[in-house]
Amino acid sequence: MDTTKTAIADSSYVKTKKLVIDVKNLKKSFGTQKVLQKISMQLFDGENLVVLGKSGSGKSVLVKCIIRLLEADGGSIDIMGENVGGLHQDGLMEIRKKIGFLFQSGALYDSMTVRENLEFPLTRIKKDLTRAAVNEKVKEALENVGLLEAIDKMPAQLSGGMRKRISLARTIVLDPMIMLYDEPTTGLDPITSDEISILINDIQQKYKTSSIIITHDIACARSTANRVVMLHEGQIYQEGSLESFEKSEDMFIKSFFK
Amino acid sequence: MKKLIPIIQLKPSVEQAKNHAIKVTEKTFDISNKASGFFQEVANMFLFAAQTFKATFSRDFEFKEFLRQCYQIGNKSLPLISVTGIIIGLVLAIQSRPTLMNFGAVTMLPGMVAVSLIREMGPVITALICAGKIGSGMGAELGSMKVTEQIDAMEVSSTNPMRFLVVTRVLAATLMIPLLVLYADALGLIGSWAGANIKGDVTFILYCRQALSHVHFMDFLPAVIKTFVFGSIIGLVGCYKGYNAGRGTESVGKAANSAVVLASLLVIMVDLVAVQITDML
Hints:
The complex is a heterodimer. Chain A is α/β, with parallel strands linked by helices. Chain A is about 40% helix and about 25% strand.
């Protein structure tokens, strides 16, 4: 199977938009297993970039390397002009303040209420905020995801979809410039998945974020994508607009979009 | 046919030698892998302790979380430590009384029990119980946070999880375990008084006066110092095992289990060293 890049990005983005994330020749292995092999891709300002691929194709590893939860074995990652690989802890923390990360599991802090979950990063990053301002921001973020009534609940009292939405609120409460979504709709029913996809678009509009959305859910990709990158066996299989994927005659791509 | 016989006989012996050589090589590799794994684990633990120490003196100490951990470790361990402390004292008194009576030294009972409790029984048994309760709790809690990506979530939101999760727990254990030991010693004394009164008759005030008259400052000081070391070991081992748990749910159980085993072992080893040092003083 040909696993080389077969199409180039939507040229309108390349020409007009500012580069936000630039990944060049990224490599990552676990032991002898090569998970990412010379991945190069870009995220442009204000776009939703969907990274599609089968389970085990290296999508989550890619996004974790971008935020340096995993150390890459080779290549470079530039976020807003800063080489993430060369940053020390303080520099990395500064970069991470600009990025929101939605985990596949939601990753809400079990021992804290929803309010405390949102306050936790807010009070540690934006230390100059008054108590009233913190309350205001927490309520605003929860209103944006439609879950203000859950403010005093514990994560264990929430459904899967609610946990994802609260987790989303926890990231947007910090006003991020970049959003990284790791399988935002996995494990959710189609209705809740649609709600999450709508929320992703709302966040893009309201907070003017640039986003990478890791998914294998075609419905989510159709709702959110401005541009699509497909990963296969740790390499970029195809890159382009959603329409180019829908019209593709390639059997592997067709198997995704049927 | 005659010429063939030695060849047929030789063939298996060459194969056997080959297999033997392969087995020896495999065993050698296995032993060297285990040894390097052990030394790597020790090095990682020292590195973790150094990172914890560094994070302790960094800015923005998480005081609220530290108080919460003190409450969790101290207050929530009180019932278990109470029962244990009373029983240790009771058993010591009941077991020692007949022997002391044989030597006509039953009046030495309060002093003997107090010295045993303060120097050895109180600190070691309380530390071992705390290793089981607190060490496993920390291992399981941090392990499940690791598995459910909560620690990663803290990292990506620019919060130092070492400062919030590890430093607060290690410091709380270091501070609370000595207090729990003192509490266990006091209850042990009450328990031993109750034990002495099963077959005797002595007032509590007289018993305490006799007990404390045999306890000197040098019985007390090394015991208190080593309980701080026990506390920090239990906190560090529990946090290290939880923080470095694997990705599956099975690893949570493993983290909790290995935290208890390693912390208990280290408590006993440190106690051995502490006894030797105290003996030299």
